[in-house]
């Protein structure tokens, strides 16, 4: 079942449950999907990788907003953003832990005979493609940087 259909049915159930956090999160996802589909560039058929990118962007936005709210001592708003990011994350594929990411990065480094920071772009490109949806770019970058410096 596509993400769009899942979201629509989940919106109905969230409305029945009167769960505002779920409802706001689901409406944000639906809005992002509609924006993607109505962009005037290319054929905007929503595929799985596009769905993952949309969800990751929404989670990242929520986490960044929460950090800003916390720095301004607005914990009430920060808690709301964190709750939404956790809810949206449920629609993403299972995230890998750092050890699993590092194993994949090390195999890519070995496979490409990379050594040193000059090869970071090549390794990052392959790692990002392979770990798409399973890890965030910041974590991948940190692990690649750590292993290329050794």
Description:
The model has no long low-confidence stretch (mean pLDDT 87). The termini are far apart. This protein has seven helices and no strands. It is globular. It is mostly helical and 150 residues long.
Low-pLDDT ranges: none
CATH architecture of the largest domain: Orthogonal Bundle
Name of the CATH superfamily of the largest domain: Uncharacterised protein YqeY/AIM41, N-terminal domain
Based on secondary structure, the structural category is mainly alpha
**What is the fold named in CATH at topology level of the largest domain?**
Hypothetical Protein Yqey, Chain: A, domain1
What spatial form do the alpha-carbon principal axes imply? globular
What is the overall number of helices?
Answer: 7
* Strand and helix order: HHHHHHH
Classify the beta-strand content into a percent band: under 5%
Gyration radius over CA: 18 Å
Number of E strands? 0
Name some characteristics of this structure:
single chain; 150 residues; Hypothetical Protein Yqey, Chain: A, domain1; Arc Repressor Mutant, subunit A; 2 domains; 7 helices
Lay out the secondary structure.
Elements: H1 3-17, H2 20-38, H3 48-71, H4 75-89, H5 98-112, H6 120-130, H7 137-149
Précis, in short:
The chain is mostly helical and 150 residues long. It has helices at 3-17, 20-38, 48-71, 75-89, 98-112, 120-130, 137-149.
